[in-house]
Amino acid sequence: MRISVRRVIDAPPPSVWAVLEDVEGQAVWMPDVAWIRAVGPSRGAGARFRVRTRVLGIPATTDEIEVTAWEPPHRLAVAHRGFVKGRGEWRLRASRDGRRTLFEWDEELTMPPPILGGLGLRAYGPVQRAMLRRSIRNLAQLAS
């Protein structure tokens, strides 16, 4: 399943990045995350984290993510390694005047078993899209 969401945030990319780079603090603005804990170094490509994820508000699974790209203040990408596998990426682009950020969030996810997992993700897709949009609204409030 692939999900893409974008929004203009009324803050420059460095302000948005300042919120994003606090990976363990992301649980504050991401409603589907109960907590995030570093496993080793917590910044830069190669950093790993354990993430307790909520499904329909209930803490359901603890997975690992690994940072695969760390390009302040423009791009942060992760690999999802756990029950749900895939990749996620945040891209930030400054507006012409530099005072706003176009924030793009892409997720590409799979879940076992192949056919049933795909159906489950597809059924949960509308909930996940709404969660991403809500997360970006929360991010925008913290960055402004």
Structure in words:
By secondary structure, this protein is an alpha+beta fold. The protein is about 25% helix and about 45% strand. It is built from 2 helices and 7 strands; from the N terminus they run βαββββββα. A hairpin with a 3-residue loop joins strand 4 (about 60-70) and strand 5 (about 75-80). The model has no long low-confidence stretch (mean pLDDT about 95).
What's this entry about, in short?
Helix content is 26%, strand content 44%.
Key terms:
alpha+beta; 2 helices; 26% helix; seven-stranded antiparallel β-sheet; single chain; 7 strands
Largest sheet: 7 strands, antiparallel
**Nearest-integer average pLDDT:** 95
Total beta strands: 7
Question: Radius of gyration in whole Å, from Cα?
Answer: 15 Å
**Tertiary shape:** globular
Low-confidence segments? none
Which structural category fits the helices and strands? alpha+beta
Distance between the terminal alpha carbons, to the nearest Å?
A: 31 Å
Record the strand order, biggest sheet.
Answer: 1-7-6-5-4-3-2
Number of helices: 2
